[in-house]
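We were asked to recover a plausible sequence for a given structure. The inputs and outputs are reproduced exactly as logged, with field labels preserved.

PROBLEM: sequence recovery
POSITIONS: 850
GIVEN STRUCTURE:
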């Protein structure tokens, strides 16, 4: 190859490399330009960034952007030199070609008609120009690059801009969309704020109106209940019962619609507060039992004695579910019975699953209708709305609430044979549980008891309670059968519990025959009535009956009645013994307990004071939060019932002030903490949450129905009493209290055939051996004898487990593992724990021996 040819090839290669380098630079510039354009804030910002990017790619002197505002009008919207800010432009044939998509390069611009209108200072700076358009939605613009050199721009510049302007157009289009989106978001935010303000105003209006409607309605219900406890003619009683029924229906309807709307809106939340499930069922049972009696129905309730006494959840919503379901049972049952049952079916480390059942012997539900029974505004049969009334929301709300509690709900039914609604709820266990059931006196063990009732369900429930007390229970369905068993019994029965309404021989006649028979002179008699009569108490006293209870019987009332019956002075003649009733039991609970009621509404005041004072409580009254603070400063209270909405100072503020005062005094939950129960209208979810957030321990929904009020009061006053009297250290003073004691007494006594002497004998022997084994264990640790340590710990573990001394058995098991491992470094600490449990067990045995 000739030298000239070679040089030409090299020049071509060099030119190709330069061209490739330039193209690479241009491509990089285009990509960088795209990134920059995507960060633009608005249309003008896009244009300014565009000019800056092009300056890096093309060496021009000036540039500006012309935008078509509307047909036949052009305006400069961006520029690199202020000189062009006020330039004047009119439509021209060349501009039409550019806007049509044809780029134009002009030379000798000062001679061109398109530029003749421009002032001389602009013309002097312009020799050539490149015009190219780009468009996006609702926008047409032209980019003009200017050079002071003649014939400066070429096809390469045009090609580069043709690659670049679509990117700019896309950036403008995206920007336009972003502007529209931002405008839409801004408008949406404005509308949302307006909607929120309207919603707040609506909620506030609803809360105020709900309070205003409920306050007099609650007063009507409360005063009607008080009037029904007075002497009335049949006509007056019928009128008041109608008022009470209609008022209750109206309140229930208001609650149902409000709850349904909150559930639909996802606004309903659950509380998480401690409560006693036994008292919850007792409260509901009292109100249902009264309605069942009016319809001639039997009613019973049962709470398994294994149910924990303190759980954490939303008792108000549980009560609402059960009332919805019992309301259905009452509505659709014309004869037979209604039963509520509650049982702990699964225990977890920190929670328990509780199963509730509401059974009836009513009309039943066809299989094909059961699937839709939980749908809103649905009843089994459309005609039933007319016959039985109701909104059809009860079961729907129940289902939603159950699901919020982590449970399930279902129905078992057969037409003509009745219905059982069941549901479960997962409830947290309280940190410090009280005993699982009422602590029976140890003398109940082997107490020979006759139980007489023609209702198999009632016998089953009471027999279960008596068995838990350790009683030897014998059941009879009639008075005649009971007399035969009494006559054949050797030794005689210690106690007879009989229903009054029996077939053939009634309970009064049975009690009279038993009392007049000298063989049964020491047999205590407790009669049970499903309908209270003003003559019953006098008749019981004439016969010589010891106790008179009305259904449904609770495990605590039954336990307390037996305690009081067998705790009397034997030397006192039977005729001088007072008749034990639920009223005397309640008075005993309320005696010495002082309560502060804070409420500004006179009717609520009357209702609360009457119910509480009749139950034996000492009650003070404050009409607003300020008076409540003054009252708390003057004396101690076992409980405060605090209304929310009051003049001067509302309940929230007063509650917070009381809690702040306790905090300043250094009072903890176990010392000086006054339980505060807020009285709410129930309608607005926020009320209850705000009460608890302010420092309230619980809440009660108005109206203040007697049974519910006393149930809540009893729960918190009993909790406070047990807390105040609980010793700081050492075993429980009640050896039967399985949670405080070092052994589970109820389980242990059952394991030892209900023979307390046998249990005591085994316990004493075990403790003597453990006393010796402790010395052996300490010596083994000192000598490093791991085998001996494991052997002695194993022996203690087995003996403690047999006595249900779980804490002691656990410490021994850990010590055994340590011995088997051969590593005795932590053995001394475990022995200290084991020794503490041994000392506690000694104290327990001493208390048990008495």
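RECOVERED SEQUENCE:
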């Amino acid at each position: 190859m000739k030298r000239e040819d070679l040089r030409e090839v090299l020049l071509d290669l060099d030119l190709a490399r330069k061209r490739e380098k330039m193209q690479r630079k241009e491509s990089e510039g285009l990509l960088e330009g795209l990134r920059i354009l995507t960060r633009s804030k608005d249309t003008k910002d896009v244009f300014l960034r565009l000019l800056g990017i092009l300056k890096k790619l093309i060496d021009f002197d000036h540039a500006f952007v012309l935008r078509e505002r509307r047909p036949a009008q052009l305006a400069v919207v961006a520029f690199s030199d202020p000189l062009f800010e006020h330039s004047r432009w009119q439509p021209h044939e060349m501009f039409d070609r550019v806007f049509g998509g044809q780029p134009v390069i002009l030379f000798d611009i000062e001679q061109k008609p398109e530029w003749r209108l421009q002032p001389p200072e602009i013309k002097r700076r312009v020799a050539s120009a490149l015009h190219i358009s780009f468009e996006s939605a609702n926008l047409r613009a032209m980019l003009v690059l200017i050079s002071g050199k003649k014939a400066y721009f070429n096809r390469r510049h045009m090609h580069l801009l043709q690659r670049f302007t679509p990117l700019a157009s896309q950036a403008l289009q995206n920007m336009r969309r972003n502007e529209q989106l931002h405008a839409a978001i801004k408008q949406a935010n404005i509308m949302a704020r307006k909607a929120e303000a309207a919603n707040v105003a609506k909620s506030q209006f609803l809360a105020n109106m709900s309070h205003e409607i409920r306050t007099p309605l609650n007063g009507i219900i409360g005063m009607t209940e008080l009037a029904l406890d007075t002497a009335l003619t049949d006509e007056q009683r019928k009128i008041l019962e109608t008022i009470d029924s209609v008022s209750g229906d109206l309140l229930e309807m208001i609650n149902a619609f409000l709850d349904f709307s909150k559930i639909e809106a996802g606004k309903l939340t659950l509380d998480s507060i401690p409560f006693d499930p036994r008292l919850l069922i007792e409260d509901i049972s009292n109100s249902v039992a009264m309605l069942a009696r009016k319809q001639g129905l039997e009613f019973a309730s049962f709470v398994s004695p294994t149910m924990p006494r303190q759980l954490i959840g939303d008792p108000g919503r549980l009560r609402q579910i059960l009332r919805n379901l019992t309301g259905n049972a009452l509505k659709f049952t014309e004869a037979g019975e209604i039963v509520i049952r509650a049982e702990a079916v699964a225990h977890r480390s920190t929670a328990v699953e509780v199963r509730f059942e509401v059974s009836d012997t009513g009309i039943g539900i066809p299989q094909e209708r059961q699937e839709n029974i939980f749908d809103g505004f649905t009843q089994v049969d459309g005609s039933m709305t007319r016959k039985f009334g109701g909104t059809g929301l009860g079961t729907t709300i129940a289902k939603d609430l159950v699901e919020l509690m982590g449970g399930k709900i279902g129905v078992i039914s057969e037409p003509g044979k009745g219905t059982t609604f069941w549901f479960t709820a997962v409830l947290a266990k309280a940190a410090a549980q009280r005993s699982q059931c009422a602590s029976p006196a140890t003398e109940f063990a082997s107490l020979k008891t006759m139980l007489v009732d023609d209702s198999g369900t009632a016998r089953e429930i009471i027999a279960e309670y008596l068995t838990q007390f350790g009683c030897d229970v014998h059941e009879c369905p009639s008075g005649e059968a009971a007399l035969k068993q009494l006559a054949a019994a050797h030794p005689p029965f210690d106690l007879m519990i009989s229903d009054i309404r029996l077939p053939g021989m009634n309970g009064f006649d049975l009690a009279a025959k038993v009392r007049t028979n000298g063989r049964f002179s020491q047999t205590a008699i407790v009669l049970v009535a499903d309908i209270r009569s003003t003559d019953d108490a006098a008749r019981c006293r004439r016969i010589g009956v010891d106790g008179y209870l009305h259904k449904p019987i609770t495990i605590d009332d039954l336990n307390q009645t037996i305690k009081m019956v067998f705790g009397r002075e034997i030397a006192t003649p039977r005729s001088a013994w007072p008749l034990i009733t639920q009223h005397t039991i309640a008075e005993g609970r309320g005696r010495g307990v002082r309560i502060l009621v804070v409420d500004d509404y006179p009717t609520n005041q009357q209702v609360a004071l009457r119910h509480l004072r009749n139950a034996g409580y000492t009650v003070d009254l404050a009409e607003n939060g300020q008076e409540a603070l003054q009252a708390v400063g003057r004396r101690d209270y076992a409980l405060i019932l605090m209304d929310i909405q009051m003049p001067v100072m509302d309940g929230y503020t007063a509650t917070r002030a009381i809690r702040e005062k306790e905090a300043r005094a250094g009072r903890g939950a176990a010392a000086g903490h006054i339980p505060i129960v807020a009285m709410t209208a129930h309608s607005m979810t926020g009320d209850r949450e705000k009460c608890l957030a302010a420092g309230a321990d619980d809440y009660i929904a108005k109206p203040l129905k007697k049974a519910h009020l006393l149930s809540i009061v009893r729960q918190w006053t009993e909790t406070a009493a047990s807390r105040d009297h609980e010793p700081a250290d050492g075993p429980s003073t009640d050896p039967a209290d399985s949670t405080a004691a070092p052994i589970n007494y109820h389980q242990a006594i059952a394991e030892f055939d209900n023979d307390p002497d046998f249990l005591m004998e085994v316990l004493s022997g075990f403790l003597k051996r453990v006393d010796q084994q402790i010395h052996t264990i300490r010596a083994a640790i000192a000598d490093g004898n791991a085998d001996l340590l494991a052997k002695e710990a194993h022996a203690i573990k087995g003996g403690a487990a047999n006595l249900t001394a779980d804490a002691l058995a656990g410490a021994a098991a850990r010590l055994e593992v340590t011995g088997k491992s051969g590593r005795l470094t932590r053995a001394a600490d475990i022995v200290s724990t084991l020794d503490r449990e041994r000392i506690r067990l000694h104290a327990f045995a001493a208390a048990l021996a008495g």
